[in-house]
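User: I'm new to structure prediction. If I give you an amino acid sequence, what do you actually give back? Let's try with this one:
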Amino acid sequence: MQTTTSPLAASSPPRSTTQQRFLREISSLGLSAAPMDAPLIRAADVANLPYATRRYMYFMGVLDRPQTWSFRVGWTGRFRRGPDDAWMPCEAWQYNTRLGVARIFHMSLTMAHLLPTAVRDTYLDGHGRMLAKVFDVFPVTDGEGEKLDIGELVTYLNDAIFFAPAMLLAPTTVWTAIDDDSFGV
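Assistant: Good question. You get back a string of structure tokens that encode the predicted 3D arrangement of the chain. For your 185 residues, that looks like this:
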């Protein structure tokens, strides 16, 4: 039997304000807890998927590993708003779950070399929202609506395919064959 830990359990104490704010938000949302047992994914579990999907699952190493229900990732890097804009250092944290499909993304960066900005990008209960605040107080962007709902769902799917494709091995996911090298989800 395999047990899982809380999605909030950090391997080390939070090191930044961004990570702390991110963990507080996840904790406050009341997202579904981890399943007690995560069955191992077997070849039979992917046998009926389109050929390209099966190949991708094998490539990503999902077989003989526990079924993925969520992931959390954090990183530091660079971000720019457009191809001609300057790069800005950033820190980002993200949590995705298939238990009540949700995506929480937090990023901190400094715009114009002096304006600390907190960005929050979410997909919850079928709705997307993008919120950016300078000094984490003054809104710069606050968007909602059908376009963001669709965009955030597409981002959720993209992240799942890239970081944890086994997360999409659920009855609610429909896979379609496009050709031998591509698939739709």
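You can read the tokens as a compact description of the fold. Here is one thing that stands out. Residues 9 and 57 are 27 Å apart (CA to CA).
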